[in-house]
Amino acid sequence: MTVQDTIEQKLRAALAPSQMTIVNESHLHHGHKGSPGTGDSHFRVEIISERFHGTSRIERHRMVNDILAEELAGPIHALAIRAAPPEDAAS
């Protein structure tokens, strides 16, 4: 299973998103200082979930980071997050 597959599996299980996009951006960072060069290290996640209702942007980011704590401690070098409840998805 790839790192991207793991991200998707964990976020789907924990947050039951109505929409989710995960983009592997590792190729954009190849050769940069600190980049492990694995091809599975830099990701962008956009996720819409009812579970974010009533939470702040910081709380939503913490939720995602907590779910992916193991990956953030290992193979993920950078994770860009856009997380919102359905009512905020358009903005």
What is the N-to-C succession of helices and strands? HEEHHE
| Top-tier CATH class | Alpha Beta
CATH homologous superfamily placement:
BolA-like
Structural class: alpha+beta
* Mean pLDDT value: 89
- Give a short account of the largest sheet: 3 strands, mixed
Helical stretch count? Answer: 3
Q: What order do the strands of the largest sheet run in, or round the barrel if closed?
A: 1-2-3
Shape: globular
Strand content: 15-25%
What would CATH call the architecture? 2-Layer Sandwich
**Rg (CA only):** 13 Å
The number of domains is 1
Helix content: 25-40%
Query: Strand tally, please?
Result: 3
Distance from first to last alpha carbon: 33 Å
Low-confidence stretches: none
Instruction: Look up the CATH topology.
Output: GMP Synthetase, Chain A, domain 3
Provide keyphrases for this structure.
3 helices; 91 residues; alpha+beta
Account of the 3D structure:
- The protein has helices spanning 3-15, 57-67, 69-72; strands spanning 19-24, 42-48, 78-84.
- By secondary structure, it is an alpha+beta fold.
- It has a single domain, classed as BolA-like (GMP Synthetase, Chain A, domain 3, 2-Layer Sandwich).
- The longest helix has 13 residues, at 3-15.
- It starts with a helix and ends in a 7-residue tail after the last strand.
- The mean pLDDT is 89.
